Amino acid sequence: MYEGVVQNLIDELGLLPGVGPKSAQRIAFHLLSADPADVKRLAHALLEVKEKVRFCRVCGNVAAEEECRICRDQRRDPHVICVVEESKDVVAIEKTREFRGRYHVLGGAISPIDGVGPDDLRVRELMARLADGEVTELILATDPNLEGEATATYLARLVKPMGLKVTRLASGLPVGGDLEYADEVTLGRAFEGRRLLDV
Amino acid sequence: MFTAHLSLTDFRSYPTAELALEPGVTAFVGPNGQGKTNLVEAIGYVASHASHRVATDAPLVRHGAPRAVIRAVIERDQRRALVELEINPGKANRARVNRAPVSRARDALGVLRTVLFAPEDLALSKGDPSERRKFMDDLLVARHPRFAGVRADYDRALKQRNALLRTASQARRRSPRRQMDDAAFASAGAGDVLSTLEVWDAHLVRHGAELLAARLDLVENLRPLVAKAYAELAPGSVPAQIDYRWFSTDEADLGTDRAELAVRLGQALAEARAQEIERGVTLVGPHRDDLLLRLGELPARGYASHGESWSFALALRLAAYDLLRSEGGDPVLILDDVFAELDAQRRRRLAEIVAPAEQVLITAAVAEDVPRELSGARFDVTEGSVTHVG
User: Which residues form the C4-type zinc fingers (chain A) (predicted)?
Assistant: First the structure.
């Protein structure tokens, strides 16, 4: 144990995701020896992010203003909504430059163990967005794990009466890889989701 | 296949241990509490990623050490594979095969296959159904490592569904009238629960049907092998029989068609729904099934004598060994302290049956416990030091 303030810092850092006690200690001592101006900038950035960043009124993505950059962009296709769990998933999909529609960030996935049900996610907001009939396709891009799949199934059932096109991201083989290295679950999924080859 | 080399770091009582092993019979002899079983436990862990003695990994790590490492060289058809496992209690284990890291530890399953006999096996015939479910599922994973994933997915879906049912059950109990119909229940604010229950049903059914189909197929394959092994262990006895017992009917002829099983499992869940919400737990599915053991017409559990129970447990293990052997690669046989538990006749029978195996590892407190049929290499184990004595 270190003197009060140092230990406080280590404890706080240790609460961050992916940071264990050793890493927390290393970061703390790095900060102690760093230039005071650098540390001030970091502290300022931390405070600023909590003060200024808000969540988009429409899609729930992180935003600097009332609405996020993507929702304000008139060139984006308003007929397609891609549903993701977290804001960081938006960034991942944006990097592909494949998708020109809009997003909806749920803020997690259904997980009764963690006490997360549909009411804890932004499902009601999604239904409100779908109500006016402008959206024709819903892409479900939740994580390909049990909770993500369950959330996708739930949403698909929920919007079924609305008659819009609901799609789920394909899961399968990594691009540029060798078939023999794929694990059996992934390979099995790839078989289930195979498609006709147009030639 | 056989284990050619075993190396331990901070595993159980061993700070370090190095052990060169040969095919054929090897006996580890020494008084109790000296670390014999720890050696074979480590080899069993390489094959199944679980201990046959404890349910959690924490006791496997030497007291005060952060992690344990097991390295084993497995030789099969003159080819050697090095498996390295790092056991991190409370965190994911890490594994390397031939010095190459695998993304998940369970991808290292299947390099070594073992069949382990231990005093705890008596629970197979005398214990709760959970013992026999574990027997079936462990064997499934040994046959097809992919089932480690299916089993984990099913358990996860089950946990999620149980958490949801618990919430529903509590919500219902809090309400003034306990016996509400679903509409009243939904309007009481718990409709959320019911709407997602169907989603979890779908996932439970999907993974459950896969597990169920695999278990049914397994029992079909084991049935003649168990009967044969029991007859060899106890000649002249009434025939031993095994049957899968599941939620719907006892004796129905079950197909192993996954789609059909999924439909039946779905129906069974629908029928149990009201009761499940009342009790807050999933009442049907592979986690409630059992492997029924019978001697003649009578169930082994409750009717079999102590000796018969032992024979049945051994017959199950021997059948597992036969099954794995018939599907390629002689598994390594591990006999952990079992001879001391058996009478002279069963002891000799068992020795005769296992003697031809490619590798047999035995632990015994005294050398006299090892039957003469099983002569081979011997290590003395005293106070954590392992010495080759011939």
Answer: 56-71
Tell me which H or E stretch contains B377.
strand B377-382
- The two tokens of residue A68 are 């996020």
Q: Structure tokens of B95?
A: 């594994």
Q: Do the Cβ atoms of B322 and B229 come closer than 8 Å? A: yes
Q: Provide block-wise average pLDDT over 10 residues at a time, chain B (390 residues).
A: 94 93 93 90 92 90 93 91 92 90 82 91 92 94 85 93 88 61 48 78 93 93 95 89 78 71 89 88 92 91 88 94 88 92 86 91 90 87 84
ipTM reported for the complex surpasses 0.90 = no
pTM (2 d.p.): 0.81
Within 10 A of B195 (CB to CB), how many other CB atoms are there?
15
Chains A–B, number of C-beta pairs less than 8 Å apart: 53
Answer whether B195 sits within 8 Å of A113, measured CB to CB: no
Residue appearing with tokens 């399953």: B109
The token duo for B112 is 């070594």
Q: Which of A117, A149, A185 sits opposite B149 (nearest CB)?
A: A185
Task: Please tell me which of the candidates B107, B160, B199 has its beta carbon nearest to residue A153.
Answer: B199
A interface test, pick of B154, B160, B169 with most A CB neighbours within 10 Å: B160
Residues of chain B with CATH 3.40.50.300: 1-113+331-390
Q: Which of residues 97-116 of A touch B (CB under 8 A)?
A: 110-113, 115
CATH number of B1-113+331-390: 3.40.50.300
Phi, psi of B3, rounded to the nearest 5 degrees: -85, 120
How far is residue A108's CA from residue B220's CA, in Å, rounded to a whole number?
43
CATH class of segment(s) B123-328: mainly alpha
Determine, for residues B199 and A110 on separate chains, whether the beta-carbon distance falls below 8 Å.
yes
Put simply, the answer to whether B156 touches A110 (Cβ < 8 Å) is no
Report A:170-189 residues touching B (Cβ under 8 A): 183-185, 188
- Residue B206's nearest CA partner among A188, A117, A187 is A188
**CATH hierarchy code of domain A4-52:** 1.10.8.420
Q: CA–CA separation, B243 vs B259, rounded Å? A: 22
The closest of B387, B365, B369 to B377, measured between CA atoms, is: B387
Q: Give the residue from B64, B63, B20 showing the smallest Cα distance to B39.
A: B20
Q: How far is B363 from chain A (nearest CA, A)?
A: 36
Q: Which CATH class is domain A68-196?
A: alpha beta
Contacting residues of A for B167, CB less than 8 Å apart: 112, 115
Every domain of chain A and the residues it spans: 4-52, 68-196
Measured distance CA(B268)–CA(A191) in Å, rounded? 29
Residues 8-37 of A with CB under 8 A from B: none
Q: Which residues of A25-37 are buried (b: 16+ CB within 10 A; e: fewer)?
A: bebbeeeeeeeee
Residue range(s) in chain B whose domain bears CATH number 1.20.1050.90 = 123-328
Query: pLDDT tens for residues A98-112?
Result: 999 999 999 999 999
